[in-house]
Structure of Inorganic polyphosphate kinase:
Amino acid sequence: MSLAPRAVLVHRTTEYEELVARHGTHGQAAFFLSSRGRDIEEIAERHRRTRRALAEVTAAIPLTWRQTRVERRDLDRFLFAPEDVVVVVGQDGLVANVAKYLAGQPVVGIDTDPGRNPGVLVRHRPADAGALLAATAGVEELTMVEAVADDTQRLVALNEIYLGAAGHQTARYRLGLDGDGGVAEAQASSGVLVGTGTGATGWIRSVWQERGGGLRLPAPTEERLLWYVREAWPSPATGTARVAGELSAAGRLTLTVESERLIAFGDGIESDAVELTWGQRVTVGVCGERLRLVG
């Protein structure tokens, strides 16, 4: 007998909850903000909207389904099952946060604050949840990026992967590309960014704009990545000939570490990073898995 689907509601602690946890009570948090010319009511109202959205989505889950909730900070300890339907209630970034932990489960993005969120990944309103859960067949498969180290460590991201020094200080490495006959350039920079079409609305786009937009941004479903070296430093020992490019579905970018410690992290979550030491190699390219986003 097959298991009934399980709805996994993914959410994050609200700004209001974080404030009250830090200051102890609503009144103390309100005083702290008012002494700095801010009103807590704006933050409290966003908190109420988020809670109403969670309640509305929960009520829309079919009675025959199982359900559970997971907070963003617990994602790395949560075990997703093949029959899960993941419902992200919050901001676009929360979809990216959960993507790396999935293996083909459909994701429904619910926007708790329309107009404040771009709505690139959280495309639906709480009132739409019932109809979306009843028919999760219409999915868009979004390209992801992966980094694989020579010691089998692996990192997957929906938007982008950053490779560099912790704290974004100077990183030293050799950068090579498939098809270049093994030629690699020694570089010193503040890191390398490799992003997808979904990431082209965020960090990658800002770098792309600074570089004059010479490369065509990929679409979210396109099996193509863009990569940029940030602030490459020319010296007698380091070059700047390779500072930007694109990777096809089969293309790979390789970094050989020449610093005591470099890290690779995805989608801005530096706390969940792959650590690399001198002499290690890491290869970055299009991931074979996709994020299956409903609607």
Notes: The first helix runs from residue 15 to 23.
